Give the backbone structure.
Amino acid sequence: MTTMDLSVKIGTLEMPNPLIAASGCFGYGLEYADLVDLSTLGGVASKGLFLAERQGHKPERIVETPSGMLNAIGLQGIGVHRFVAEKLPELRARKARNIVNICGTTLDEYVEVARVLSDAEGVDAIEINISCPNIKEGGIQFGCSLDGTFNVVSAVRKVTRLPIIPKLTPNVTSPASFARAAEDAGADAISLVNTFLAMAIDVEQRKPKLSNVVGGLSGPAIRPIAIRMVWECRQEVKIPIIGMGGIMDWRDVIEFMLAGANAVQVGTANFVDPFIWPKLLDGIESYMQRHGITRLADIVGAVDTASPAKAHA
Amino acid sequence: MTTMDLSVKIGTLEMPNPLIAASGCFGYGLEYADLVDLSTLGGVASKGLFLAERQGHKPERIVETPSGMLNAIGLQGIGVHRFVAEKLPELRARKARNIVNICGTTLDEYVEVARVLSDAEGVDAIEINISCPNIKEGGIQFGCSLDGTFNVVSAVRKVTRLPIIPKLTPNVTSPASFARAAEDAGADAISLVNTFLAMAIDVEQRKPKLSNVVGGLSGPAIRPIAIRMVWECRQEVKIPIIGMGGIMDWRDVIEFMLAGANAVQVGTANFVDPFIWPKLLDGIESYMQRHGITRLADIVGAVDTASPAKAHA
Amino acid sequence: MPPVDVRATVISNVRLSHDYNVLTFSAPEVGALTEPGQFVMVKTTDTSEPMLRRPFSVFEVLRDDLGTVRAISILNKRAGRTTNLLYGLGAGDPIWCLGPLGLPFNPPESGDAWMVAGGVGLAPFATLAEALVAVNVPTTLFYGARTGEELYYLEFFDRLGVKLVLSTEDGSIGEKGRVTAPLETSLKELSGPNQVSIYACGPEPMLAAVAKLAMQYGQPSEVSMERTMGCGLGGCYSCVVPVTHADGQTRYVRSCIGGPVFDGAVVAWE
Amino acid sequence: MPPVDVRATVISNVRLSHDYNVLTFSAPEVGALTEPGQFVMVKTTDTSEPMLRRPFSVFEVLRDDLGTVRAISILNKRAGRTTNLLYGLGAGDPIWCLGPLGLPFNPPESGDAWMVAGGVGLAPFATLAEALVAVNVPTTLFYGARTGEELYYLEFFDRLGVKLVLSTEDGSIGEKGRVTAPLETSLKELSGPNQVSIYACGPEPMLAAVAKLAMQYGQPSEVSMERTMGCGLGGCYSCVVPVTHADGQTRYVRSCIGGPVFDGAVVAWE
Ligand SMILES: Cc1cc2nc3c(=O)[nH]c(=O)nc-3n(C[C@H](O)[C@H](O)[C@H](O)COP(=O)(O)OP(=O)(O)OC[C@H]3O[C@@H](n4cnc5c(N)ncnc54)[C@H](O)[C@@H]3O)c2cc1C
Ligand SMILES: Cc1cc2nc3c(=O)[nH]c(=O)nc-3n(C[C@H](O)[C@H](O)[C@H](O)COP(=O)(O)OP(=O)(O)OC[C@H]3O[C@@H](n4cnc5c(N)ncnc54)[C@H](O)[C@@H]3O)c2cc1C
Ligand SMILES: Cc1cc2nc3c(=O)[nH]c(=O)nc-3n(C[C@H](O)[C@H](O)[C@H](O)COP(=O)(O)O)c2cc1C
Ligand SMILES: Cc1cc2nc3c(=O)[nH]c(=O)nc-3n(C[C@H](O)[C@H](O)[C@H](O)COP(=O)(O)O)c2cc1C
Ligand code: FES
Ligand code: FES
């Protein structure tokens, strides 16, 4: 049989396959370097970075929910400067493709973080987090307003030639209109979904389970909603979509791609099984073989909505 | 010990307890009359009714997802006139408190259905479904616009003295602003959440699993988001809130009430266990006893957000 | 009688093949109420993964020597999550069983009974055969499968005195081809209408073919339809079958309460 | 050595009480790498209910007569979903085990070793005691529980030659009260600083008290902290402990990779 092509291109970022470790679910990547060869991943999305170091929220920071989990980490992080100095060199040495996730409490901070990363060696793309539901000051006020989204993306666009990938929130009526705003502002791709704003209460203590009261829901529970949003955005924009939300196995990767994703990120599943990466690749390759697919990109958005599946096929 | 008071009042509707069978998950109620004494439920929300009979969507109409399910029934139903003639008399005979869920493809249809029900004997409240994600023509275009919500509720308000309870969609940026619109328009209570618009794809057939392509996600998967939305609405409005989304046991009932719900609906769980009702009541009563609560209404909105729960208490 | 919900215990799991097994469990309360053609909704976990119950015909109602119902069994064929779990259960494992549900087969008004089973569609016919034999209705089982290895419980029906007409797609046992071929052959030999009652369970194309043949030869038929079911009780409207009503209109009928057994002549086959 | 993930099989489940059990399973690959104080992340299902793994100290590393590692065990105390499932498992059931993870205890630089365990905090001390005894470090276990019935494995430690100092809250065995009371009595008897190394595992208030006592009496301490852990590998930042750094600043440190064993003197107790 012919060789299989799983590659994905987002501007200057060329990935051998569509599997990206999701931001905030893979540390800075190096934490997993002994478990998985980072160069075999399509990319590594770093934990969200502000300009300065951040302590994040007090524990409890996570809580499990039915087929999902809430997190309110509060973007604890080492700041962009320490990231460039302490993490990037080793990530480069390990040949990771680095998609650096950036945050800001102001538009200027996004711009400044992006500038620092553009000047650094070894950054392959910038993912702009305008969708973190867990902190009051930053991100989400941009991500929940069409103008805010447009403005942040345009401003970052002006200071970098790196591919920029705004990460959209699912906590809006129409993610597709935000996808449009992002594309109009010059984004090279969009990624979605970030987590769903949610809450869990300890009924015996009558208190929120998370110190931050609310947190973001991730994991398989949200996958059907995320699939719908990716599918809607695919009708709206031409730029690549990085889909995510509850991917647990190769089937889910294919589902996102059929809905319209060019690449995917895997977050929560990595906690459950840090050795998931080669299993995902194997599953995708068997699927391609079984279906005679040589170029994985051919299935992007290929769901046939004209005629639904048979249940009793 | 003193007797326990679990009662809930919504306008003229007085319920002995906060447990309502959710619309579309309990047929017209009579299907379950041999399994559970309908008079022991707080209320029965009927399947959504249009003016005329409707056939609904082709199968497949449901599909299971992680800790949840999608449905796109398409509001198959007998229409309000047959409901009044064929179902209401027996529901009355069985002493069910009937919360009749109404739909419309136009504002006039909502008004007309509400009028028919107001003239009928045995309707205790009207739940206005402006949030069904599964049909193109009706409901959701009202439910996703603040003006639409206000207009439908005001129009129905004018033709009935029955308690009216608009049912809000979760597929919007801020359900609380819709709660406000509903309260301003004269609603006696609001109910939320309806299902989340979602999608599932059969990767082998490369087709949507539902004939309608998209459907509504219900079940425990959505509970943390629903809890957050109820909590947000509780800050915004004073009228009673009927909370729902993924209630599977008594703990979940209490969680919704602590978040701000005065009553709850149980949908998907009823499919898993049609004998759930007395179990929920027992669980609530033990909880009240354990916590020395004599009036269940006292815990509504009582979650203490000033200090989070201890994980290792 | 309303259905009951039993947290039963698996008594035995007999694997018939790589795909089929017979799972016997202690749900006598359900068995005692069951009529042939009715089904149960089962679940193997008390978690939400998987969440919904799944429908299964009651295969056998098992009695002790005194005739007291002790257990029921289902004939399970692996198709997905829950059927895989059911294949893997062992004695002592819990299983939640709600039933009996749905409308049963109606006994023949007169004449012989012909049961037509395709694959796992055999499931409702063990109890139906017992009931028919008990009232001395001459009964035939037309039973088709892919290969002879997938024809199960032949001895059971044989022992009851049921006449067996077998067919396989590969011709390894019985007539080669679809089960509808020997059925048609037998129909042709009938002298007139309303001489036999036909009962069918299997894949939908087979049911449609059986119903049409029955109509063509003027015999009544009842078909057991398979639909995705969310609740089994009429609550969710997931399980609908298009039925042509007396007024000539086709309407969706919930197969869990208006079926799963339908008059083959009223189903609006697609 | 990086951790490994093993789909292990339960070998035995010994219930010690209504709440405690020792679960032994075939994860020799993990056991062979484990150092005292390290933990594993386990999961009892391959579904998403429950979804996340849970952290457990490696309790025993079990070897055959030739010294080859055959299995490991965990000392489990029921607290919620997964711990209940772990209590219920039987021989042959699968269990997914990722490990070993985290930083182990450091052996004493000099002097005796004092282990302080509260309740299920006993878990890391079976392997630590074996390691210490193997290099002839005189070892004492201060072990407290609610009642005498909840003091487990006393014979195991006794046989190793570990000195036991017991306490119970109800006084049924040993000194009545908290385990820190006999610890303080012993500390008072020391002639100066750096004579013993203290290792503690148990509820956080106990750990804080032990760390403070250790500082007060000039002895080094290591405490094993318990936090909700999402991944066990540094990926999620859920498990943080506030640690006062050399620059005087308190920062959150991920206890799965910067712990669970911390120097008792640097934890910023709340
Ligand atoms: C009245 C009735 C009686 C039945 N009796 C038997 C029986 O005796 N023995 C037996 O083996 N099977 C029987 N079935 C079919 C059985 O219910 C399905 O095979 C089962 O629900 C599949 O569940 P799963 O979790 O294994 O598959 P899933 O993982 O849910 O799905 C796997 C495949 O099965 C399809 N499917 C899902 N739900 C159903 C469903 N309710 N019915 C049919 N297909 C479905 C899916 O679309 C998919 O193609 C009966 C069905 C009905 C409606
Ligand atoms: C490094 C480490 C080693 C541990 N070693 C052991 C051991 O050897 N034996 C043992 O019995 N337990 C041990 N624990 C505690 C054990 O991990 C928890 O009891 C377990 O995670 C609870 O899971 P659950 O599903 O049963 O409870 P859940 O249903 O998840 O929760 C029940 C209660 O436990 C709390 N909880 C949830 N997750 C954790 C967590 N990760 N740690 C502590 N509490 C939690 C919840 O807030 C809640 O109050 C250890 C914890 C850590 C961090
Ligand atoms: C613990 C945790 C931390 C996260 N931190 C970030 C972050 O720093 N930046 C970001 O853009 N997304 C963050 N996310 C969101 C994930 O990147 C991803 O969008 C989401 O979890 C959905 O994917 P999943 O279901 O595969 O986890 C975080 C998610 C989790 C669970
Ligand atoms: C099969 C099905 C049909 C439904 N039909 C209706 C309906 O007719 N009208 C309505 O307002 N909500 C309908 N709903 C939504 C439920 O009433 C409820 O809002 C939702 O399912 C969330 O609750 P749950 O998680 O307890 O099921 C339906 C839900 C399901 C699962
Ligand atoms: S299965 Fe729910 S109505 Fe038939
Ligand atoms: S448990 Fe995930 S970072 Fe520690």
Q: What stands out?
A: The domain at 4-101 of chain C is CATH 2.40.30.10 (Elongation Factor Tu (Ef-tu); domain 3). The first strand of chain C starts at residue 4 and ends at 15. The radius of gyration of chain C is 18 Å.
